[in-house]
Amino acid sequence: MTEQRMRMKWIKTVTCAVILLSFFFSPRMSYAQTESELNFYVTPILPESQLEGGALGYFDLNLGAGERDELALEIENGSDQAIEIEISAHTAFTNVNGVVEYGRDAESPDPTLPASIDELVEVPETVLLDPLEKRIISLPITMPEEEFKGVLAGGIRIKEVISEEEQTQSAEEGLGIRNAFSYVIGVVVSNNRSATDPGLELLDVFADQVNYRNVFSAVIQNYTATFVNQLEVTAEIRSVDGETILYETSQSSMQMAPNSHMHFPIPLDGDRFRNGEYVLNLTARSGEEEWSWEQIFSVEAEDARRLNELDVTVDTSLNWWMIATAGLISLLLIIAIILIVHKKKNAKEGGKS
């Protein structure tokens, strides 16, 4: 009997284990599925002007002022269907996380840029590739007529065009969203590669938001034609007439693109903006270089109200406890006033009698 019980207990244990394993390792159901196959491949064909000993995965050129050259991409359609490819050129910029982006344009290019990559590189609007076709696409590049120091950086973005018809067909077949994959091939050009010392400037600080959350944004500019590497920034916010640090943050291992600026965020961590004057102390370091600034700025009541209403972490609902308390206090004051008036009236009537 004991042996039979032990056997039944062992069977139950194994069954539970199998159920648990099947739960952890079985595929999950989801509301949207995505296709993950890559339909095309891109290889840069480096020109003779490519710097000797430079990287092999991107274009790294040294050309004279006004000089022309040819960039080339080998694009292969790896699918059994015709595909349309879109090619675009972009100038590198620094995003809010301190990361250099090469595959899209900045909302507002820095005014210190000597030129933009999209002005220098000629790209076709679209390229149609037959099934399994391999083709070399030529991209002429012309340097600015005026010589500049340092480097100009950007990227060539190669993206598959997904038509609305294909998206609709994928949805009807139960494939969900179809991803549009893209490659970004870096481009760095210069007239000469003499060393350029980095230089930073604090342009502005103001009340702002990142992902619908309140932050103070400090606008840091790299006004030089060189990358600023391993950038570390620390920032503190105080009231203009106080010593207490209200908000502080630090970030390291960042990078800034040549002739670019970034909005460095100092988060409020769920706090509301309050109008008034503040002071920012900010320090930036890169290698042996260090820059420090102190700047007074103000937050207007209208801006604070507008941003607080948009912040998803700030409770903008009515505080019924405060309203009830204020109403109760008002009611007690009214009752007190009535009692005082009534008492004075009775006193006058008693005096007459």
Helix content: 10-25%
Mean pLDDT: 85
Number of E-state strands: 19
Rg is: 32 Å
Please give a structural write-up.
This protein has two domains: about 35-190, Sandwich (Immunoglobulin-like), CATH 2.60.40.10; about 200-310, Immunoglobulin-like. The protein is about 25% helix and about 40% strand. The chain contains five helices and 19 strands. A five-stranded mixed sheet has the order 3-12-10-5-8. Strands 16-15-18-19 form a four-stranded antiparallel sheet. A three-stranded antiparallel sheet has the order 2-4-9, with no helix packed on it. The longest helix is centred in the last third of the chain and has 33 residues, at about 320-350. The radius of gyration is 32 Å and the shape is elongated. It starts with a helix and ends with a helix.
What characteristics describe this protein?
353 residues, alpha+beta, Immunoglobulin-like, 2 domains, four-stranded antiparallel sheet, 23% helix, elongated
Short description:
The chain contains five helices and 19 strands. The protein is α+β, with helices and mostly antiparallel strands.
Topology, pairings included?
Elements: H1 2-25, E1 34-35, E2 40-45, E3 59-62, E4 68-77, E5 83-91, E6 93-94, E7 100-101, H2 117-120, E8 126-129, E9 134-142, E10 151-160, H3 164-172, E11 177-178, E12 182-190, E13 200-209, E14 214-222, E15 228-239, E16 245-256, E17 260-267, E18 276-286, E19 289-299, H4 301-310, H5 320-352
Parallel strand pairs: 1-11, 3-12
Antiparallel strand pairs: 2-4, 4-9, 5-8, 5-10, 6-7, 10-12, 13-14, 14-17, 15-16, 15-18, 18-19
